[in-house]
Design goal:
It is built from four helices and no strands.
Length: 106
Amino acid sequence: MTAGTSTGDAALVAEILELRAKNEQLSQALVTRAVIDQARGMVMVLAPCSSERAWNLLVDVSQHCNVKLRDVAAALVATTKDERLPEPLQRALSRGLRRIHLADRR
């Protein structure tokens, strides 16, 4: 009976640990998503452009600078608190905004 109980307890502990890990991942995803949405809104105001275009621009910056999208978004949002955007991100963002402006003129 003790062996069966400890096996059941071990399975329960494993399930609890798995659920806690998933909960942490979901919590982090919600925080990350909020920052990305804020950055997308900032791009929409700067360009001005659609939400989809803003998303594509952020993805472009992320890929060209080899920086995770969430980190690009966090750096952009941090500029609202007087933090400087790192130079590579600033250059890539400026190029992307210029492309949007030029595309709109055509």
